[in-house]
Every structure is written in structure tokens, then in C-alpha cells.
Inverse folding.
């Protein structure tokens, strides 16, 4: 057995562009192009992406103070 380190192989990224599915480009990662990055930003700004929120109620069934309302 030798005491030489085992060379590591470069790890291939399996993540694809979340907009079109092509391989990501290093300068705009995780997207493949500036266009796909802009499409994603536009979706956030137009509120196409949303995080689900549930209203919290207190013991009386009323909305708790500080809870968001739509």
C-alpha cells in the first residue's frame, strides 16, 4: 500500500436550470442564462411564487394579534 492520496474526481452538478432544465452556467448559477434568471425574478415580482400561510387563531376562535390577514 502506498501513502499517496487518492485523487478526487470532479463532481458533476446534476442540478438543472429551474426554468428550462438546461445545465447551469457558472456566472448565473443556478440558471443557464441571464434570461432564465430574469424570468425567475419576474415571477417573484409578479407574486407568481407564494409561500402558503395559515392564520393562527386563539382559544376563542378569533384571529391572533399580529397574524397576517389577506
Amino acid at each position: 500500500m502506498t501513502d499517496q492520496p487518492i485523487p478526487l474526481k470532479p463532481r458533476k452538478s446534476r442540478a438543472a436550470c429551474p426554468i428550462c432544465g438546461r445545465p447551469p452556467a457558472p456566472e448565473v448559477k443556478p440558471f443557464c442564462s441571464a434570461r432564465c434568471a430574469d424570468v425567475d425574478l419576474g415571477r417573484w415580482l409578479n407574486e407568481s411564487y407564494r409561500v402558503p400561510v395559515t392564520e393562527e387563531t386563539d382559544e376563542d376562535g378569533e384571529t391572533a394579534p399580529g397574524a397576517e390577514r389577506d
Q: What stands out?
A: The two ends are 68 Å apart (CA to CA).
